[in-house]
Amino acid sequence: QVQLVESGGGLVQPGGSLRLSCVASGFIFSSYTMRWYRQRPGKERELVAQITSASGSTTYGDSVKGRFTISRDNGKNTLYLQMNSLKPEDTAVYYCKALLLSHWGQGTQVTVSS
Question: Which helix (H) or strand (E) holds 35?
């Protein structure tokens, strides 16, 4: 049974940092490209970042490029998203997902506010 459990969200001031984690189980984590998505209030879910399974190659959405870093630890079946220089517009629920699998986790809320 595929499970994705996100954590690490919270309330942070503009300019601050957070590190999100996603623990995966029920599939061969190391074999899948993994993604972080977010859903901002009143908006559709959008792709934030992706990391491939083989080479660990990364890609980012334009709005987070240079501020966010996606990484993975295949030994721990865990995906990470380091978020720096956070802005109020980064406020969203953040989700992880494996490419080609339909399962979503419950998400973790990130709120950037002074």
Answer: strand 34-39
Query: If we measure between CA atoms, which residue out of 17, 16, 8, 7 comes closest to residue 114?
Result: 16
Q: Which residue carries 């061969």 as its tokens?
A: 28
Q: Please report how many Cα atoms fall inside a 13 Å half-sphere around the Cα of residue 20, on the Cβ side.
A: 33
User: Which DSSP symbol is given to 43?
Assistant: S
Q: CB of 23 within 8 A of CB of 90?
A: no
Instruction: Extract the tokens encoding 110.
Output: 């990130």
* CA 36 to chain centroid: 3
Q: Whole-angstrom Cα distance, residue 37 to residue 20?
A: 12
Across the strands, what pairs with 83? 18, 68
Tens digits of residue pLDDT in 37-75: 999 999 999 999 999 997 889 999 999 999 999 999 999
Residue range 66-81, pLDDT digits in tens: 999 999 999 999 999 9
Q: For residue 40, what are the contacts with CB-CB under 8 A and spacing of at least 6?
A: 46, 89, 91, 92
